[in-house]
UniProtKB/TrEMBL annotation:
Gene Ontology terms for molecular function: DNA binding
Ranges of residues in domain HTH tetR-type: 36-96
Record InterPro entries: Homeodomain-like_sf (IPR009057), HTH_TetR (IPR001647), Repressor_TetR_C (IPR004111), Tet_transcr_reg_TetR-rel_C_sf (IPR036271)
DNA-binding feature ranges: 59-78
Residue ranges of the TM segments: none
Top-level taxon of the source organism: Bacteria
Name by which UniProt lists this protein: Tetracycline repressor protein class E
Keywords in alphabetical order: DNA-binding, Transcription, Transcription regulation
Organism: Enhygromyxa salina
Secretion signal span: none
Taxonomic lineage from the root: Bacteria, Pseudomonadati, Myxococcota, Polyangia, Nannocystales
Alphabetical GO biological process terms: negative regulation of DNA-templated transcription
Length: 258
């Protein structure tokens, strides 16, 4: 359905309108049917739909149906689905915007950034689909960025390196979250991992002689026994996080372990 306020798209105008909506700088209601619905309530509903059904199921009409209003009423708050998605992303990012206790060791601060971001992406799987290079420039995203930079500030890094170090950590987290979400979706749509392996074990043993693939059989068996699965997303994340911290250590240690 075409937005009744879209007309000919003007990217500059749309960007300004979206920014003002993100910061709640102007009344969100635009010409259209009168609605007592607040922008915050609309965004909260859209997030709930995306969390449970995915972005493919999210639309202005779907949000309107959930709220029991007409699509035209939704359009008095947001002009496009793209604008709604920016508002949703910024609101979700705002969950990590509030400053909290800061650990003394930089290693613990990086681990906290990584784990809280992983939890955020698991709560809102659709966030991994958003391009990191074009974040919504609202208070939620900005507050999250400020909090994470503060955790790494004072380590003697220049501004460019500070931003790069944070991006390195968040890039690792996005990859880990994407793999974990894919694994969860696979299990939800079919058999469990245990059932998948059990259905193939006997035939695989027949077709893949252990003497021809000694390392694959030995290492695979050891890893599977240790993790009770061929792949443990949590163990993989913790292993990778430790390596991320190890990788940053030479950079940060040269400025002192603060």
């Amino acid at each position: 359905m075409m937005s009744p306020v879209a007309g000919k798209r003007d990217p500059s105008t749309e960007a300004v309108r979206t920014l003002r909506s993100l910061w709640r700088a102007t009344p969100s209601v635009r010409p259209g049917p009168t609605s007592a619905l607040s922008l915050d309530a609309l965004v909260t509903t859209a997030i709930a739909i995306a969390d449970t059904e995915g972005l493919a199921k999210l639309s202005i009409r779907r949000v309107a149906t959930e709220l029991g209003i007409s699509p035209m009423s939704v359009y008095t708050h947001v002009a496009t689905k793209a604008e709604l998605l920016e508002l949703m992303t910024d609101t979700a990012h705002g969950e990590l915007a509030d400053p909290g206790p800061v650990a003394e060791r930089w290693q613990d601060r990086i681990a906290e950034i990584a784990r809280t971001n992983l939890d955020l992406l698991i709560r809102h799987p659709w966030l991994v689909e958003q391009p990191p290079g074009r974040p919504p420039l609202g208070p939620g995203t900005t507050g999250k960025y400020e909090r994470e930079l503060t955790a790494l500030d004072g380590l003697g890094l220049d501004d460019i390196t500070l931003d790069a170090a944070l991006s390195f950590v968040l890039g690792f987290v996005r990859g880990a979250a994407r793999d974990r979400i894919a694994a969860q979706n696979t299990v939800a749509d079919s058999e469990t991992d245990e059932q998948w392996w059990a259905a193939r074990a006997a035939t695989l043993a027949e077709l893949m002689p252990a003497e021809d693939y000694p390392l694959a059989v030995r290492v695979g068996s050891a890893a599977g026994a240790a993790q009770d699965a061929a792949w443990d997303p949590l163990a993989a994340f913790e292993f990778g996080l430790a390596r991320v911290i190890d990788g940053l250590a030479p950079l940060l240690d040269q400025h002192g372990d603060r």
